[in-house]
Amino acid sequence: MRGFYRITVIVLLCLPISLAAQGKLVLIGGGSESEGGWSDAPYRWVVDHAANKKVAVISYADEDNFIPDYFVSLGAAEATNIKIDSRTVADLQSTYDLLMTYDAFFFKGGDQSIYYTQFKNTKTMQAAIDKFHAGGVMSGTSAGMAILSGVMYTAENGSAYPDETLANLYNKNVTLANDFLAFLPGFLFDSHFTERGRIGRLLPFLAQWYLNKHELITGLGVDDRTALCIDPDRKAEVFGTGTVSIYNGSAYTAFKDEMPVADSIHAIQLLHGHRIDLTTFEILEGPTDVVSPQPSDETGNYAVALSGGGEVSENNDLLNFLVKENGQLHDTVVVVTAPGKGKTFIQKIKDLGGGATLVETAAASNDISQMALRNIIRRSKKILFVENDNGLLFNFLSAGPTGTLLNRHLRRNGMVVAFAGEDSRYAGHSFTTNHRTDGYAAYYGRLSYQKGLRLLPTSVIMANTFDPATTDYYENTTAAVSYAVVADSARYGIYLNKKNYVKFYQQNGRNHFKAMGDRSVLILMNRSTGAALASQPVNAGGPARDYAGFASMQYVLLNGNAVLDAGVPVPSTDAPYAFEYPVVGVDNEFGLSALQVFPNPSSSGIFNLSRDISASRNLELSIVDIVGRTLLEQHGGSLEQAVDLSGFPDGVYLLRIDNGKEISSMKVIKQR
Fold this sequence. Notes:
Blueprint: H1 2-18, E1 24-28, H2 40-48, E2 54-59, H3 66-73, E3 78-83, H4 87-90, H5 93-99, E4 104-107, H6 112-119, H7 123-133, E5 137-141, H8 143-146, E6 149-153, H9 162-167, E7 176-177, E8 184-190, H10 199-213, E9 218-222, E10 226-230, E11 235-240, E12 244-249, E13 253-255, E14 259-270, E15 275-277, E16 283-285, E17 289-291, E18 303-307, H11 316-323, E19 332-337, H12 343-351, E20 355-360, H13 371-379, E21 382-385, H14 390-398, H15 401-409, E22 416-419, E23 430-432, E24 449-451, E25 459-462, H16 474-487, E26 492-495, E27 500-507, E28 510-517, E29 521-525, E30 529-533, E31 548-558, E32 563-567, E33 597-598, E34 606-609, E35 620-624, E36 630-635, E37 642-644, E38 651-658, E39 663-670
Parallel strand pairs: 1-5, 2-3, 2-4, 4-5, 6-8, 8-9, 18-22, 19-20, 19-21, 21-22, 25-26
Antiparallel strand pairs: 1-10, 6-7, 9-12, 10-11, 11-15, 12-14, 13-14, 14-31, 15-16, 17-30, 18-27, 23-24, 26-29, 27-28, 28-32, 29-31, 30-31, 33-34, 34-37, 35-36, 35-38, 38-39
Helix pairs in contact: 5-7, 13-15, 14-15
């Protein structure tokens, strides 16, 4: 029996070491608490899992009593603000003794570098570790959450921003350490995740740690007004209005020794009520609707170039690809733009040695008389969309002979179609229209989407995702991509930035995506996954946030020589063009110059011809609608003295007469 007791004692003494994660964690991504709202459940979880129901609310600054009172309202026996404003106070034995009387710690938001520098290697740090290993609850919001992770972003040199870290994963502000609280080893936490576009920095953080330490760690991002409650056995549940995102990469490299590259980062994005095992990453309760991409891959047999920035100086690589790397240098580039726009891009194309023809999305360009312009489009192999207005562009492309021709032409085999800046959104399945005019669109569930050109029909594209000049829109630009991938059953979500571009092209019988530029491009891939849209509103009775959850997708960090396979090109059936010709002379045999059509306009649709053409067997007469379709033809002896359009809708038509040498055209109008 003595031997049994000795063994038992040894085992019990070893338990705190072998079960280092005995405590509980509550990770809160920031945002204001809401009595009776989203925060009640996770904050009550803190109280319910504290053995003595006492909560220490820890900060380095003076705080009001809202949080302590809130915990008490949720069942806490006691909740107290504890100010620890220096290393001296942090290292007092009395501070340690005070903290150890509470079974739950709650670290407030603020500056995580202050927590790190003032609390590291002090009695306060030891109290947190000891209490956690004794089964206590460690919780925190915003910066107070960030300090709880195994690998911590310390922010000692200032905040790191996504545009900076995608350009240089060794940016001076990327300061990582694993020598603080480390309650969840092998994890790196980030808060305010979607709101501040922090996927653009968390993935480079993971890459830097791997390249420096040769250790793969898990990234975990929590949105504002969202919490993740973690049991001692690492079973975790999500509460709140946003998402919890979890990332595991298999390897990382650096292009030009600084830009992060990764070919597959597994991603999980969970919503309110979802549960996961953070040891195995098995989803215990998650989204059940299966979202499979439709179509399953990109099949276009043409090249598409997409840039993130809208200034000509940010598009040198894209314009070189368009002008110099495809076709002939002297090929005409058709520049499609809003009235009065695009001039700097046209000049740059000319400076590179190319030619350019302007197509303004105005009624004048869509007039039936613009035959020469349409013939230029028919001959073109290169098109650039730049500085367009959503409404003007899509109205132009759907109404009128020039716009409808252009919309068909850009899909022909071998075309090279480029989109600069915000225009890049148009190339995909759908695009947001209010992401840069309504800073709270995603937050309040009012992002609006419009059908895109669908040159890349299973892709969703965001331009200039992480623009440091427009950080107020990060939530929109970040959330909109994954939301649309799920809502539209798309395959790819492409996050572009300034000074980079993605090209879609064919090589060796396959389609590919490749990224170029000064920042890596982030691409989300959906191969088929359980997915759902957020259900929890910010305000009671209002719409849910425009956020999506999914069980399994992949992210790629693309740059340099890395290539993403995107499917098999399927050639289209391109009919030869019939070019339009204006009146260039007179058919002397027939006296075409004297021909008149009356009445014009005609309410009945019957148009009489002033000359007898029935005997002119070498003539052909045709009626063409505004989109170039031939509706009626008469040849030689079948020519009649009147043209009957009574069976066609009101509108403008083109009457064409061909004598074999030239074509004469006349506009006729049917109007009741």
